[in-house]
Recover the amino acids of this structure.
């Protein structure tokens, strides 16, 4: 099965630059202007069912405030989203009988981000559901190289974005 992004066409056009305005479907859902199956809300976050669910109970957790992606969201807002995602995961296990959970996030078009408002997919997993999350396409022989690059980057990080 291939992903068909045309389902977004029923919403206002998504601003690929990630500007928070009426074109962001998740801002529209958070403001109540766009219909969604909302399942929970905190002062900082909103949880609703995915429009094209991967599995039974697939939920999106978003901050109510607009942030484009993982590189844009402040730490405090990120922590609120992750705490809410954990609560949703527990609820999926208890109420839907999920035998596992995947938390999925995409930053950028190369990662297949289609809505440029930070969000976490809480995907309940069921025995035999046949979803392949990590197809193992990278060359394991390059582990030493990438480990060194990451050690260098993490020990000499760039200054935080303003």
């Amino acid at each position: 099965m291939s992903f068909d992004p045309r389902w977004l066409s029923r919403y206002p056009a998504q601003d690929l630059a990630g500007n928070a305005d009426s074109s962001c479907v998740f801002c529209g859902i958070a403001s109540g202007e766009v219909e969604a199956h909302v399942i929970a809300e905190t002062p900082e976050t909103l949880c609703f069912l995915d429009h094209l669910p991967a599995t039974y109970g697939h939920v999106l957790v978003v901050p109510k405030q607009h942030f484009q992606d993982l590189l844009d969201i402040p730490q405090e807002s990120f922590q609120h989203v992750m705490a809410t995602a954990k609560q949703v995961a527990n609820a999926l296990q208890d109420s839907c009988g999920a035998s596992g959970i995947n938390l999925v996030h995409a930053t950028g078009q190369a990662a297949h981000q289609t809505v440029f408002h930070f969000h976490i997919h809480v995907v309940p997993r069921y025995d035999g559901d046949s979803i392949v999350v990590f197809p193992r396409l990278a060359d394991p022989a390059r582990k030493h190289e990438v480990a060194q690059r990451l050690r260098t980057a993490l020990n000499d990080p760039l200054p935080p974005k303003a």
Notes: The longest helix spans residues 75-96.
